[in-house]
Amino acid sequence: VTRAVAAGPGDTDSAAWVAGAVELAQAGDARALARLVSLVENGAAELRPVMKLLAPLTGRARVIGLTGAPGVGKSTVTGALVAACRGGGERVGVLAVDPTSPFSGGALLGDRVRMQGHATDPGVFIRSMATRGHLGGLSAAVPQALRVLDAAGCATVLVETVGVGQAEVEVASLADTTLVIVAPGMGDAIQAAKAGILEVADILVVNKSDKEGAQEAVRDLRTMVSMARRGEGDWKPPIMTTSAVTGEGISELAEKVDAHWSWLGSSGQRDARRRARAREEITAIAVAELRRRVGGLPGGAQLDDLAGRVAAGELDPFAAADELVAAASRGG
Amino acid sequence: VTRAVAAGPGDTDSAAWVAGAVELAQAGDARALARLVSLVENGAAELRPVMKLLAPLTGRARVIGLTGAPGVGKSTVTGALVAACRGGGERVGVLAVDPTSPFSGGALLGDRVRMQGHATDPGVFIRSMATRGHLGGLSAAVPQALRVLDAAGCATVLVETVGVGQAEVEVASLADTTLVIVAPGMGDAIQAAKAGILEVADILVVNKSDKEGAQEAVRDLRTMVSMARRGEGDWKPPIMTTSAVTGEGISELAEKVDAHWSWLGSSGQRDARRRARAREEITAIAVAELRRRVGGLPGGAQLDDLAGRVAAGELDPFAAADELVAAASRGG
User: Fold this and answer.
1) Which of A181, B32, B63, B127 could be cross-linked to B21 through a Cys-Cys bond (beta carbons 3.0 to 4.6 Å apart)?
2) Which residue, A119, A112, A120, A84, is CA-closest to A252?
3) Angle (nearest 5°) at CA B143 between B242 and B159
4) Which of A54, A58, A290 faces B294 most closely, judged by CB atoms?
5) Is the CB of residue A217 less than 8 Å from the CB of residue A193?
6) Dihedral in degrees, nearest 10, Cα atoms A201, A203, A208, A212
7) CA torsion angle for B11, B15, B16, B21 (degrees, to 10)?
8) pLDDT > 70 fraction of chain A, expressed in percent and rounded
C-alpha cells in the first residue's frame, strides 16, 4: 500500500499538529475543529493517526439524526433544536449532510443560510458535508466527522440528511435518537411509509403544523405506528407537531428527545446502539478497503475486460465476480 | 462455501427446469417469468446456473429508469408509458422497486393498484421488488431481475424507484434512459437539485402539469440544466411536462425517450453505458461476497469484540477494520 504524501507537515510533525488541533478544538477553537473535519472529509493520509489519537476521547456526545424528504423543513427544525440545546449552555455540533450536484456547482448553501441565527455563536459548530463520491453514502466520512466533534467536546451533535431511503437507514445507524420529519401536503404519511423511513424513527415530527392537512398526517402516522410490531418495553415513537419557523412545539420536541435519551440509558439500548454503530463503522471501512482492492491494482484492466464480456453476453456477472474476488484476495 | 439445499429439484433437474422456464417465459408465460424473478429475488442457490444460462440471451431490452420523490406520480407516468409502448405492440416489463416497511407489513400495493389497467394484459409483466435487506439497495437483485426480463423477450423494461438520493444514482447506472420526475408544489426544483438527482436525468419530467407552480418548476429546471457543464455533442436533458392522469404530454414524452435511445446508439453511449453497468454489477456481486466474508466465518465474534473495543474508545475503527480485512483475505 502506497501512502499519499501530505501537502503539509510530515508524519511526526503531523501527530504533534493533530494533538495541538484537538486541544484547541476542545477549548472551543472553531478553526482547529474545521481543519480536523476537513482532514476527515478529504480522507487525508493523516486520517488514521488522527482517529487513533481521538479514540479515547470519544463516546460522550449525544447524536441526534434528523431526516425526511426535501422541503419538510429539516434545517429549520435543526436550527430550532440547536437553540433549545444552547439554552442549556452545552456546545452543539451540526453536520448537514448535503449531496453535491454539478447543477449547483457544489453543496447548496440554503441550509447554512437558514441557520445563520447561530453562525456567530462560538458554542455552535456547523458544517455541511458532501456525500458524493463517498462510497456507501454516509458510511465513510460522517462517522469520522462525528468522532471529531465528539472528541472536541460537543455535548450534542445534530446530523441532518437530505433524501429518502437508504440515507435514513444510515443516519439511524449513526444516531442515538433519530427524528423523521414530515410535512403536510408533501405527499401523505403513506408515502413516507412507502419510502421505508418510518421504521427508523425514534420520534416522528409533523413540521409546518399550521398548514392544512397536519391533523391528517398525525392521524395517518398514528395508525402506522400502532400497526408496527413492538415488544414489551420497546420505545414507541411519539408523534410531535412543530412549526419550527414560529418555534411552536420545539421545547416539547426537545423534551421528548431528552426522554428518549433517558430511555436509551435505562433500557441498555444506548450501549447496544453504540456497539452496533461501531460494527457498521468498522465493516464500512473494511468493505471500502476490499472494494478498493477489487477495483484496484489487479482489477482495473481485468474489470474492464470482464465487463465487456458480461455486456456481450459471453459471461454471467457471478462468474465474473468470482474472478475479481480471487484477484482481490491475492492483492492488497 | 456451503450450498443451500433448494426446496425444489436437485441441481441437474434444476438446470432442466430453468431451461424450460426460460423457454416458457420467452413464449409469454407470465407464471414462468414470475418464478424466475422470485428465484432472483430470494437469492436462491439456483441463481448462478440461471444467470449462466441467461447470459447469451441478454442485452436486447431497452431499460428505462423512472425516479423522483414520493408523491410526484411516478407510477402513473410508468403506467402511461407502458400504454405507449404497448401501442407499438412490444412486450413490456415493469419493475417497481419498493422498499418494504414493518409499518405496512410488506411492499405497498399502491403502485400495482394504480397500474391495474395493465394487470390483465399478457404482454405486460409487472413486478414489485423489495430492496430491504439487499446490500447496496438496488445493486443486488434488480440487475439480475432485469436480465431475466431481458432474456424472456421484454423489448422495454421500466424500472421505477421510490426515494431521493442514492437509489436514483443506482437506477441511472442500470438504465439506458433515466427519467427524473418532479411535481409542482412538492418542494421546488432547488430541492431536487439539493437531493443530487438532476444530474442523473436524461429527461426531466414535470408531472401534474395542470397544477399551480408547473411553469415555475419548468423554469427552475431549465435554469439548472443550463448551468450544468456539458461537452460538445453531449445530450442536453429536455424538460417535458405531463399530466399522466389525463395522458397529456405522454406521447411527446415517449417520442423523447425514443429520441434518446437513438442518440445513445449513434453516439456510442449505449455500449459505453452497458459496459459501465456490467462493471457496476460485477463489482457489486464481488463486494457482497467480500462483505459476507468480513461479517462471516471468522468475523462474527471477532467483529463483536472489535466493535466493543471501538465503542469503548480502546481502539480506532481503522485499526479494527485492518484486523477484519486480514481475516477476510484468509477466509472464504
Assistant:
1) B32
2) A84
3) 15
4) A290
5) no
6) 80
7) 130
8) 75
